[in-house]
Task: structure prediction
Amino acid sequence: MQSDQHPTRLICCLTSPTARQMRQDMETAAARGADTVECRLDYLDRLPDDAQLERLLKEPPAAVIVTCRPTREGGRYDGDEYARLRVLCRAANLGATVDIERDVPVAEALAVANAARQSQIIRSHHDFNAVPDNLDQLVAEMEQSAGTVTKIVFTPSRAEDGFRPLDLLRSRSRDMIALAMGEAGIVSRILGRKFGAYGTFTTLNDTASTAPGQVNIDLMRNLYRWQSINERTAVYGVVGCPIAHSLSPAIHNAAFEAAAVNAVYVPMLVQSGADNFNRFMDALLERPWLDWRGLSVTIPHKEAALAYVGPANCEPLAAMIGAVNTITIGPGGTLSGRNTDYAAAIDALCNAMSLRREELLDRPVAVLGAGGAARAVVAALVHYGAQVTVYNRTLSRAKALAEEFFCTAKDWSRVASLEAQVVINCTSIGMHPGVDDSPLAQVPPGVEVIFDTIYNPIETKLLKTARAAGCRTVSGVDMFVNQAVAQFETWTGIQAPREIMRSVVLKKLQS
Ligand code: NAP
Result:
C-alpha cells in the first residue's frame, strides 16, 4: 500500500505558452493553494532549452511535475521523441517529478528514471474514449513498470464508471493517481483524497483545462473544501441531468462547513432514464466503503427515485406526489425517501402569511402550471384543506392533476381573471433567461399573496408586479432554501445553519 507520508497532492496544471509565463503561473498557483504544479511543456510554443528549463525549475514555490504529453496520448507535442525524452531527463535531473507515458519503451523509461535520483517517476496512461476493457490487468502491469507512481485516466461511458478510479485506489500496491474524465468523473477527482490518491489535478481557471471535467483550484478548495477531506469524510451528492449549474453543492458544502460536519457533497451527472438511475444506485450501494449517506434527487430522476427506494420506505405524501427528492442511506444500505419540496413550498407560503399549515383550510389558491413542482404544491395544499384551482397551458394536464387530487382545473386563457387569495406560479414563465416574461400582466382583484417558485432571478417580473400592487410576495429562494434545510436536517439530525445556506444561494444567484 501507499506510504501515506504525504496527503493527496493538490496539483495545478499549467498550460502557459512561454516558460517565463509558466514560472509566473507557478507562483500564482502556489499562492492560490496548490502544493504541486504540473508544467505541461507540450503547451509551450517550443520545448525549453537547458537554461530556460533551469530558470523554470529553480527553487520552485511548490513541488513540480514535468510532463510533455505527446499527441498520441491526448497532449500537444508532435515533435521529435528523442528531444522530448531528453527534456524529461533534464527535468528529472533538476529535481522535478517526471511523467512518462506507459508506451515509452523500457530502456528509455529507465534512462529517465536513472536521471531522477531524488525525484519520482509517474508512469501514465490516458484513454480519451472509454474505460479500458482490461483495466485491472493494465493497472497491474503498470504497477510493475519503472517508476514510483501509477497514473491511469479514462473516459466513463456511464455515471457509475466515475467510481472505478476509487476501486483502483483501494487496491493499489504503490502510489497512484486514478481519475475518470468528464462530468461523470468529477466524483473521482474530489474523493481521491479520501482514498489516499497521490494527487488530483486542478486548473488555474476554467479555460486552462487539460482534460474534461477538471475542477478549478478555487472551487476545489472553497466549494469542495479539499483540505478538510479525509478517510472518515461522509459523502453526499445530487443526482440529475443536467447538473452543472445546480446550486446544491454550494449550499450543502457551506452548511457542512458551518456546522462542522465531516462531509462533502458532490454533483453526479446521471443521464435520463430509470435504467440509468437504477444502475447508478446499484453501483453506489455495492460500495459501502464510499460512506455515501444521502442524495438529493433532481430532474429527471425524482419518479425513478421513488420506485427505487420503494413507496413503503418513503413518507406517505412523497408516495402520493409520486416523487422523491431526498434519499437517506442508512446502516447496511437501507434506504428511505422524502419529498422536501412540498413542505418547503408550504412553509415558505405559511411563513409569509404568518399562518400554521392547518390554517390553509378553505383558502382559495390558484396554482399556475401542472408539472413536477405544481404536483408537489397541489398535493400539499389539498392535504391541508386549501381550495385549489389549477391553471395550465395544456388543459389536459391540469385536468389530470386536478382529478388526482380532487380539486378544480381551468383553462390557461382564464388565468388573467382568476379568483383567489393566493397565487402560486409553478410554470417556468419568467425564469432566466426569459426574465421579461410573466404569467400575469396584472394582479387580479382579491389576490393578497403571490408566490413564485422560480428562484432565478430572485425577484421575477411577476413578483415585481405583485410588490407594486401591494401584495405580499414569496420567492422561490425561500422554497429552495427550505428544501435544502430539510435535507440537511434529515441527513445529519442537527439544526441546519439556515442563514448561511440562504446567503450562499443569494450570493450565487447574484454573481
Ligand atoms: P415542468 O415539470 O417542466 O413544468 C413546467 C410547467 O410550466 C408546465 O406546467 C408547463 O405547461 C408550464 N409552462 C412552460 N412554459 C410555458 C409557457 N410558455 N406558457 C405557459 N405555461 C408554460 O417543470 P417543474 O419542475 O414543475 O418546474 C417549474 C418551475 O418550478 C421552474 O421554474 C422551477 O424553477 C421551479 N421550481 C422551483 C423549486 C424551488 O425550490 N424553488 C423547485 C422545483 C421547481 P405545459 O404543461 O403546458 O407544458
In short: Residues 299, 341, 369-374, 392-394, 397, 426-429, 431, 453-455, 476, 479-480, 483 surround NAP (CB under 6 Å). The mean pLDDT is 95. The CA atoms of residues 70 and 81 lie 9 Å apart. DSSP finds 18 helices and 20 strands in the chain.
